[in-house]
């Protein structure tokens, strides 16, 4: 797995550091959205909060992960699809938040419906967050 993660970093012109490897590995292993706090808890060692924030922001900027806004104005992060690149996210899918376990899932096969906005408005991003009970909690 470390070889795959190293390749992702190299392909995005990023240095392969222990912090970047570990954080990206957490996303790969979990397969779900993670918060800054989740990464702190799961890292197994102490990462400086600022280092985690900067690493996450770098990954967002490079198109490796994308942000998911939540109802409480916090931010979750999830791996991007292969079609994302630096400055060009293509994550037009629905996110699902389980009200039971708190897990946020990317529903890659569910596309965001077309939204018509009034003339004069400019859309940069559309987010759809669906709340309910996931299949694991049913």
From TrEMBL:
GO biological process: negative regulation of DNA-templated transcription; regulation of secondary metabolite biosynthetic process
InterPro entries assigned to the protein according to its UniProt record, in alphabetical order: FUR (IPR002481), Fur_C (IPR043135), WH-like_DNA-bd_sf (IPR036388), WH_DNA-bd_sf (IPR036390)
Binding site for Zn(2+): 98, 101, 134, 137
Residue positions binding Fe cation: 89, 91
Cofactor annotation remark: Binds 1 Mn(2+) or Fe(2+) ion per subunit. Binds 1 zinc ion per subunit.
Annotated PANTHER family: HYDROGEN PEROXIDE SENSITIVE REPRESSOR (PTHR33202:SF22), ZINC UPTAKE REGULATION PROTEIN (PTHR33202)
Family from the record: Belongs to the Fur family.
UniProt name for this protein: Fur family transcriptional regulator, ferric uptake regulator
Native organism: Parafilimonas terrae
């Amino acid at each position: 797995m470390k070889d795959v993660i190293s390749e992702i970093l190299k392909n995005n012109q990023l240095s392969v550091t222990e912090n970047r490897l570990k954080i990206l590995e957490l996303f790969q292993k979990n397969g779900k959205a993670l918060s800054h706090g989740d990464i702190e808890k799961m890292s197994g060692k102490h990462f400086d909060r600022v280092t985690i924030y900067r690493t996450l922001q770098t990954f967002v900027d490079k198109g490796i992960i994308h942000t998911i806004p939540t109802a409480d104005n916090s931010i979750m992060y999830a791996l991007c699809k292969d079609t994302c690149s630096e400055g060009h996210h293509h994550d037009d899918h629905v996110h699902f938040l389980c009200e039971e376990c708190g897990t946020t899932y990317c529903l890659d096969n569910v596309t965001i419906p077309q939204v018509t906005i009034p003339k004069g408005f400019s859309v940069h991003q559309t987010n759809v967050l669906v709340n309910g009970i996931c299949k694991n909690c049913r």
